[in-house]
Amino acid sequence: MKPLVSIGIPSYNCSSYILETLESVKNQTYSPIEIIIIDDCSSDDSAEKIKKWIALNGLNNVEFLCNSHNMGLVKTCNLLLNKISGIYYSFLGSDDILLPTKIEEQVAVFEKEDHSLAVVYSDAIVINEKSEVIQESYFQRIGSVHLPQGDIFQLLIEKNFIPALSVLIKTSTVKNIGGYDENLVFEDWDMWLCLAQKFRFHGILKSTAKYRIHSNSMMQNDSNVIRFNRSQIAMLKKYFGKNNFIDNLVLKKIKDLSIYSYYKGDKEASDLLFWSFRHTYSFKVFIYFLLSLCRVRLAFSGK
């Protein structure tokens, strides 16, 4: 008997895309699959569309829940994690799309490997709001030409190169480490790092999903960028103190992010810069620290 796979969908204000997302899950060539959907108190008609889709398709492998108030992505992911019962699972954004053989191909990789493998991931096709292809390869878009295999912790410290929608994860590995860190505003990068400390990753060169880019991305808003930046720094500090080599990578990332916080006008930039200076004694960081204390803000010319 083939292992059960759970697909969790955290839904929030994606009425324009949710049906395309759900259809892509329904059209998977693999079985058995269970689908768990949690709507995070959407203000549009996403929930109504999901209910109608479930009723129209008469599916008995779908569970749909609605949060009573907006809890945010990470807490919703933990709620999903507590509901799923599959040996493997994947979380899918409510505007992204799975290609038909994704789950089948990734389960096949897991079934050939030993217990040290926690994550199978792949490349993805990049699409826009109209589902038109922007780029055939997510990895080419971010400047990578290969998919690292095995122990990839060091590479992940330097950059989050794994598209979250492309993964299939061994459920037990995530539940054993306590799920997602709700102190962060993103769920994926920290989880990859947690798992990469103990387990292997396997990358599939082909695309198994479509990743949607929005022209009105939340990251065009300075306040959202500041929150995301702070969260990245908080996450990286969790991995500081492992060894000198990793510490140097972490400190370099935090130094760059702290300076970026200054340029974005973060009110906490002086604290971030001071922490970075205390650990790096960088003259450059010290100058930015003084500028932030004096409330002198230079024009941003690129990260």
Q: What is this entry, summarized?
A:
This protein has helices at 18-26, 46-57, 73-83, 102-112, 138-141, 153-158, 171-175, 188-196, 222-237, 244-263, 269-280, 283-293, and strands at 5-11, 33-39, 62-66, 88-91, 97-98, 117-127, 133-135, 168-170, 200-212.
Number of helices: 12
Main sheet record: 9 strands, mixed
At the fourth CATH level, what is the homologous superfamily of the largest domain?
Spore Coat Polysaccharide Biosynthesis Protein SpsA, Chain A
Mean of pLDDT? 94
CATH architecture of the largest domain, by name, is Alpha-Beta Complex
Rg is: 20 Å
- Taken together, the total number of domains comes to 2
**Structural class of the helices, strands and pairings?**
alpha/beta
Shape: globular
CATH class of the largest domain: Alpha Beta
Element pattern in H and E: EHEHEHEEHEEHHEHHEHHHH
Beginning-to-end CA distance, first to last residue: 51 Å
User: How many beta-strand elements?
Assistant: 9
Task: Kindly report the CATH topology of the largest domain.
Answer: Spore Coat Polysaccharide Biosynthesis Protein SpsA, Chain A
Strand content: 15-25%
Low-confidence stretches: none
Helix content: 40-55%
Walk me through what this model shows:
The longest helix is centred in the C-terminal third of the chain and has 20 residues, at 244-263. The chain has 2 domains: 5-212, Alpha-Beta Complex (Spore Coat Polysaccharide Biosynthesis Protein SpsA, Chain A); 218-293, no CATH class. The protein has helices at residues 18-26, 46-57, 73-83, 102-112, 138-141, 153-158, 171-175, 188-196, 222-237, 244-263, 269-280, 283-293, and strands spanning 5-11, 33-39, 62-66, 88-91, 97-98, 117-127, 133-135, 168-170, 200-212. Strands 1, 2, 3, 4, 5, 6, 7, 8 and 9 form a 9-stranded mixed β-sheet that branches. It is built from 12 helices and 9 strands. Strand 1 (5-11), helix 1 (18-26) and strand 2 form a beta-alpha-beta unit. Helix content is 42%, strand content 18%. The mean pLDDT is 94. It is globular and about 65 Å long. By secondary structure, the protein is an alpha/beta fold.
